[in-house]
């Protein structure tokens, strides 16, 4: 709550009561038109026995984040580990500054800074944090329907130079930012016609340089499914398409698996016999659970599914690949 009194303002600015009232009226108009805020007036007698007017503005009623909302967003930002520490500090300071400037909370940002002090001090980003400038350029291109031209480091370490890409959407998953869109393939250099304008997903930390290009052809998110599961594969999927995956999970692992791969419960097993179910609540305790999801078959997926308590049922190629990877892992742990 912001407040000031007429007599204090007269003394501070060495002006008349009429000037103060005129200026307050102008401020009130601006606050009402742009921020939907109201200036309230309370008449009172001050300690000197003089009549006075207290002007009050409750900024929490405007389009501002509350102290609790700022705290929640700051916690999510720290947990993402996506950006360098300097970027995170800059963003948190911008979030908390209005709490002090507009007096949106009794103690301003002090309480938030106290609660986040340890987490901010020990914050460590991922090994390859996203550059904020890269993300902002992708956002600019999406809003303006522009192509971008990037130098992109692929997961195998090779670099695609002057990669022409039409970004359509931006999302975040497991510490990293991803951009969906279409890569333009030059058919004059040997690329097949059906490879042109192929659906792609770029991971932002792989972008070495980026600049805005020409206007983009209007496109929709067709050619691959527009859901968060497409990026769970992380690195490269089969033609960047999602596939239906069935897994068998023990009851303890089911909750984690549901969250990690955005799966739905479709059944459970009792002595090898399968029974239908649509939620974990319908599954008897300790019964193995059958889960279904649509995912892109990529390298990151093996990390998610190759955990204790999970058995991939379909597709067969994924099952065989996980068997091979687990066999290789077991071989590394063989005793001499």
UniProtKB/TrEMBL annotation:
InterPro entries: CBASS_pafABC_assoc_protein (IPR051534), WYL_dom (IPR026881). Pfam families: WYL. PROSITE patterns: WYL (PS52050). Residues 134-211 form the WYL domain. This is WYL domain-containing protein.
């Amino acid at each position: 709550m912001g407040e000031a009194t007429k007599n204090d303002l007269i003394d501070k600015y060495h002006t008349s009561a009429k000037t103060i009232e005129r200026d307050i009226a102008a401020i009130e108009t601006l606050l009402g038109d742009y921020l939907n805020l109201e200036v309230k007036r309370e008449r009172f007698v001050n300690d000197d026995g003089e009549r006075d007017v207290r002007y009050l503005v409750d900024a929490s009623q405007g389009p501002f984040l509350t102290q609790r909302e700022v705290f929640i967003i700051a916690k999510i930002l720290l947990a993402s580990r996506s950006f360098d520490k300097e970027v995170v500090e800059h963003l948190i300071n911008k979030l908390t500054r209005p709490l002090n400037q507009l007096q949106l909370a009794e103690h301003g940002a002090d309480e938030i800074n106290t609660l986040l002090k340890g987490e901010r001090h020990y914050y460590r980003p991922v090994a390859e944090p996203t550059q904020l400038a890269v993300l902002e350029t992708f956002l600019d291109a999406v809003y303006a329907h522009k192509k971008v031209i990037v130098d992109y480091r692929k997961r195998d370490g090779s670099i695609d130079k002057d990669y022409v890409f039409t970004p359509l959407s931006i999302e975040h998953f497991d510490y990293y930012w991803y951009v969906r869109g279409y890569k333009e393939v030059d058919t004059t250099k040997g690329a097949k016609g059906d490879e042109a304008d192929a659906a792609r997903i770029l991971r932002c930390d792989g972008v070495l340089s980026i600049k805005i290009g020409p206007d983009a052809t209007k496109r929709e998110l067709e050619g691959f499914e527009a859901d968060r599961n497409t990026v769970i594969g992380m690195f490269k999927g089969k033609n960047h398409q999602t596939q239906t995956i069935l897994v068998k999970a023990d009851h303890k692992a089911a909750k984690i698996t549901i969250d990690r791969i955005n799966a739905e419960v479709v059944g459970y097993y009792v002595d090898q016999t399968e029974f239908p179910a649509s939620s974990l609540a319908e599954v008897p305790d300790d019964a193995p659970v059958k889960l279904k999801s649509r995912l892109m078959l990529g390298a990151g997926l093996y990390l998610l599914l190759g955990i204790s308590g999970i058995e991939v049922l379909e597709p067969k190629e994924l099952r065989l690949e996980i068997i091979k990877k687990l066999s290789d892992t077991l071989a590394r742990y063989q005793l001499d």
